[in-house]
Amino acid sequence: MAADFERDSIASAVDSEGRASGRIELSDTDALLATLLGRCTFPSPGTPVTCAVSGGADSLALLVLACRAGCVVTAVHVDHRLRPTGEIEAAQVAAVASRFGARFNAVSVEVAEGPNLEARARRARYDALPADVLVGHTADDRAETMLLNLLRGTGATGLAALGASPRRPLLALRRGDTEAVCASLGLVPLRDPTNSDPRFRRNRVRGEVLPLLAEVAERDVVPLLVRLGDHLAALDGFVELAAANLDPTDVQALRAASPVVARAALRRWLRTGGDEEQHPPDAAAVERVLSVVRGERRATEVGRGRRVARSAGRLHLT
Asked: How far apart are CA 245 and CA 251, in angstroms?
């Protein structure tokens, strides 16, 4: 059961002369947390949940709000061993978990320096966590992911990525909301230096592309991108439902289907054995398979050492 929030640890938001002190009254904290919880999608009180907590503002807010929602929380910190401060960071997360009545578990994984470091670290992190782990993704993360996928040449599926999921209860919140949660409770988020490293494309999208788009549009573009993602998710869901009822190995069925549905069915098939963290097959690979369907070629490579061939009216993936 979540511990009570310390009433005597939060002082007035203003001093005797009316100046802001940077600290917030408990009543203001309660109101803030209640308002934000109304926009979250945590399971019912008493539900056991695991929260991935790196120590940044988003994950600390996830931990606090999950406890406040009455969930039975286990916070898990994953140390990638890429920084010498990993054990110190884990201890800080453990202290926060204890303060709010959550269990704590520390996990270490090995990720070597080298190409695709960000993607490999993310993969190792998810491999070390339970499949139903809750993560602190916000609307800002979703907007960044949409733009990253756009830069990769994605279609509707990629633009609808990082949508509503039981694993993402904070998706309707903004990064400023999670920072406000930490500030209201006197929590100091850990700062990951890699989050400002321009080697990683997401950091440039966050620090350069989104601010520039906001300047050009003269408005906050994150809500616009999120709304577009919701619309595309609805359309993509309709197409995926039709694709799920289509046999992607049946050449005649693929020829008779709408090209949009046929492409979706082939994407699903080519992603066999993958998961939501794995990028779907690129558009060029899908088009090459369609050329096999049309009889323009007998076989084609589709990446990751795999090949699609046609025989006796069926497609075969080897």
From this structure: 14
Query: Has residue 161 been placed in a domain?
Result: no
* One domain, residues 250 and 111: no
Specify if 152 maps to a domain: no
**DSSP string for residues in 98-120:** HHTT-EEEEEE----SSTTHHHH
Least confident of 22-31, 57-66, 307-316: 22-31
Three-state SS at 317: strand
DSSP 250: B
Would you call 264 exposed, middle or buried from its count of C-beta atoms within 10 A (0-12, 13-18, 19+)?
buried
Q: How many domains does the chain fold into?
A: 2
Residue 1, pLDDT > 50, answer: no
Decide if 296 contacts 310 (C-beta within 8 A): no
Distance between CA atoms of 222 and 173, rounded to whole angstroms? 11
Report pLDDT digits (tens) over 4-25.
443 333 333 333 333 334 454 5
Eight-state DSSP code of residue 134:
B
| Shared-domain flag, residues 128 and 254 | no
**Dist. CA 239–CA 274, nearest whole Å:** 20
Assess contact for 299 and 310: CB atoms under 8 A: yes
- For the stretch 219-257, pLDDT in tens is 999 999 999 999 999 998 999 999 999 999 999 999 999
Name the band, by pLDDT with cuts 50, 70 and 90, for residue 82: low
Which two structure tokens, joined as six digits, stand for 63?
């931990």
Structure tokens at 177: 């909301």
Q: Are 73 and 190 in contact (CB under 8 A)?
A: no
Q: Which of 145, 175, 205 is nearest to 62 (CA)?
A: 175
- Span 183-199, pLDDT tens digits: 999 999 998 777 788 88
